[in-house]
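Kindly inspect the following:
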Amino acid sequence: MDVLFLDANVLFSAAYSPDARLRLFWQIPSTRLVTSLYAAEEARRNLPKPDQRRRLELLVTVIKQVAEANPAILPTDVLLPEKDRPILAAAMASGATHLITGDRAHFGVWYGKKIGSLTVLPPAAYVDERHERQRLRKEQRKQQEPG
């Protein structure tokens, strides 16, 4: 089962409009969604309208929220701005398999790579990766069928 840590920008985008495509993450089977109190607060602070903040509250009530983790746990070769270090630390400490972030400026260099056991991906790349895994599983099952 994939455990997806959602960055603040993913939460923000999912709450921004009622028909945001990123809301699909809440419907992906066999996944668990996680975020941090820090990420949720950052998204909340940046949403300008009360209805957007209400949507955010509904979204975060159904996912696990973890406390901040000490950024000292981060590998020394991972260089990030101070505001992003708590996101990565919380994702690693939460046991997430993936950090889902649209922050190309700060996390883009890590897209598709692992930091510890955590794979960093933009939202669309995760969806593509998941579809590919499902396709391969179907092919394997077909090949194992008798006859």
